[in-house]
């Protein structure tokens, strides 16, 4: 039983890293398409892309260790003691499985302690300190700041410095942008993306995570522009960027951040269109077929271990 459980754990965690490495390499080819399509759809596809390594690892393990499914994908072979369909096992899998499990838990724990817990505490403290108007929480700070903070129940925070420095039209634009973050659960989306990439080296997923954040901001810019105009949102974004320094928490979605120039250019450029449904279906089918094609070689590779 120990050999079976440790083999399953080793398989799942090693595949998470393997698919993460493959995803990092493949993203170089996928990135131009992601940056060219409609931002709301791109943000959804990027989250799915980042969820592929752990998802594909779980799917592969389920098939490998499920005899009813494995018999269709694993070529028949016999061992000295049995010819029955079985999940691959290695008697020495416990040690490498323990190392990979410790590494994975360390990455997840770093994400929890470094982002989720501090943001939860900060949100509660800011709500207590601020003036809750229902639509947003007004913070008594002269430093201009506007951001959305929180995972399941996100709240909008705007400082009095921002309210004094901006016109009513600008504040309305900011509120519409931040309201879109709240409705889209963008903070939760970004947190999940970090969990999906927690055990992977940071450089493997840095580009995809940066693009995901940028797509979330672009999508909210377009949501605000639907009630005014792209030029109005671009003008407000430029004005706020000149006022706002690094005042928003790193775990929040701020109205103006370090991607302001790209967002303004996107607003002033031609509208981007969503990716066609048939292309999404073809890409999904091809990905699934590639994962299933790895089942047999992975089964034999695990059995090569002592």
Explain what the structure shows:
The protein is mainly alpha-helical and 306 residues long. The chain is built from twelve helices and five strands. The chain has helices at residues 2-36, 39-64, 67-73, 94-129, 160-165, 168-184, 186-196, 202-225, 230-243, 260-268, 277-293, 295-303, and strands at 131-132, 137-139, 146-149, 155-159, 253-254. A five-stranded mixed β-sheet has the order 1-2-4-3-5. A hairpin with a 5-residue loop joins strand 3 and strand 4 (155-159). The two termini are 16 Å apart. The model has no long low-confidence stretch (mean pLDDT 85).
List keywords for this structure.
306 residues; mainly alpha; five-stranded mixed beta sheet
Short description:
The chain has 306 residues and is mostly helical. 69% of the residues lie in helices and 5% in strands. Helix 6 packs across helix 8 (202-225).
Strand content: 5-15%
Number of strands: 5
Q: Percent helix among the residues?
A: 55-70%
- Measured on Cα atoms, how large is the radius of gyration? 24 Å
Secondary structure blueprint with pairings:
Layout: H1 2-36, H2 39-64, H3 67-73, H4 94-129, E1 131-132, E2 137-139, E3 146-149, E4 155-159, H5 160-165, H6 168-184, H7 186-196, H8 202-225, H9 230-243, E5 253-254, H10 260-268, H11 277-293, H12 295-303
Helix pairs in contact: 1-2, 1-4, 1-8, 2-7, 2-8, 6-8, 7-8, 8-9, 8-10, 9-10
């Amino acid at each position: 039983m120990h050999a079976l459980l440790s083999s399953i754990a080793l398989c799942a965690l090693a595949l998470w890293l393997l698919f993460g490495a493959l995803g990092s390499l493949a993203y170089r080819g996928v990135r131009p398409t992601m940056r060219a399509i409609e931002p709301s759809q791109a943000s959804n596809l990027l989250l799915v892309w980042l969820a592929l390594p752990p998802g594909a690892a779980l799917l592969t393990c389920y098939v490998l260790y499920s005899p009813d499914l494995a018999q269709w994908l694993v070529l028949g072979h016999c061992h000295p003691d049995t010819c029955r369909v079985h999940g691959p096992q290695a008697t020495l899998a416990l040690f490498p499985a323990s190392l990979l499990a410790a590494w994975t838990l360390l990455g997840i724990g770093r994400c929890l302690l470094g982002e989720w817990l501090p943001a939860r505490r900060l949100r509660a403290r800011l709500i207590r300190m601020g003036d809750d108007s229902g639509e947003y929480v007004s913070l008594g700070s002269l430093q201009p700041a506007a951001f959305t903070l929180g995972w399941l129940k996100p709240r909008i925070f705007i400082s009095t410095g921002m309210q004094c420095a901006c016109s009513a039209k600008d504040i309305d634009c900011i509120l519409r942008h931040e309201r879109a973050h709240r409705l889209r659960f963008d903070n939760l989306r970004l947190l999940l993306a970090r969990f999906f990439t927690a055990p992977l080296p940071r450089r493997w997923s840095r580009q995809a995570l940066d693009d995901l954040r940028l797509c979330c901001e672009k999508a909210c810019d377009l949501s605000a522009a639907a009630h005014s105009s792209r030029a109005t949102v671009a003008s407000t974004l430029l004005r706020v960027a000149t006022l706002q320094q690094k005042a928003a928490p790193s775990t929040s979605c701020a109205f103006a951040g370090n991607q302001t120039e790209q967002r303004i250019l996107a607003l002033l450029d031609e509208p981007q269109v969503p990716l066609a449904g048939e292309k999404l279906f073809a890409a999904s089918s091809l990905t699934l077929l590639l994962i299933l094609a790895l089942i047999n070689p992975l089964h034999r590779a695990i059995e090569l271990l002592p």
